[in-house]
Design goal:
The chain contains 5 helices and 11 strands, in the order ββββαβββαββαβαβα. By secondary structure, the chain is of the alpha/beta class. The chain has one domain: 3-Layer(aba) Sandwich (Rossmann fold). Strands 1, 2, 3, 4, 5, 6, 7, 8, 9, 10 and 11 form an 11-stranded mixed β-sheet that branches. A hairpin with a 2-residue loop joins β3 and β4. α2 packs across α5. The longest helix is centred in the C-terminal third of the chain and has 20 residues. The protein is globular, with a radius of gyration of 17 Å. The structure holds hypoxanthine. The site of hypoxanthine has 12 residues, from β5, β10 and β11.
Amino acid sequence: MDTERIAIVGGSGLTWLDTLSVEKQKVVVTPYGDPSAPLTFGQFGKLPVVFLPRHGAGHTIPPHEVNYRANIWALHSVGVKKIISVASVGGITMEPGILCVPDQIIDYTWGREHTYVESGQSPVKHVDFTEPYCEELRQALIQAGMNASVRLKKDGCYGATQGPRLETAAEIQRMHRDGCDLVGMTGMPEAALARELDLCFAHLSLVVNWAAGLGKGPITMQEIQNNLESSIEAVKKLLVSIEAI
Ligand code: HPA
């Protein structure tokens, strides 16, 4: 068991960490099925890490089909206590190219396997989720962003949608009224599952498009891809700047 190791769950554009020096890979079986990929153990910058690509090594698993329970369970089962989750998102109050370490979540997803709590367990467990992210880890990400001199917003509300389709303009207006700054498809139930297992979990969002109705015309995959390619280096620069946590 390796309690110092931090997990990085990579999203679109981050299916691999180029400068990760790999020590080993491990296929983990969980009571909830298979995680998205084998876990990769290695050294990344100053950190010993476990890396897991959320959408699979070949980016084949869509957001609504990610086995979030297996992913978080697998990381927990190898002794990880802290998880950094990375994902690309649409911007509601933030423009493409900016990074954000959100401090709140609104969950609009449905039908996902979203809890480890099962019927028959007594007493039924209700976790506190007032502050959904681990503040210590959020601050480490913010500090790393400052050290790396990347454009970073220190807080924001992440709205998690079901996908895989993008939202309507009216849905984004509603999310704006609700207080969401970002919209993404993978932020939940990942964060809540980590809390159920008592893990310290924080998220790093990369804004890759204006959310529906806020940019010029429809959102194109080409626009998302272009912004992802031009900004993913900032994400890597931030991650590699994380000091020991
Ligand atoms: N909506 C939801 N998820 C996303 C978006 C978006 O506009 N962009 C990247 N992931």
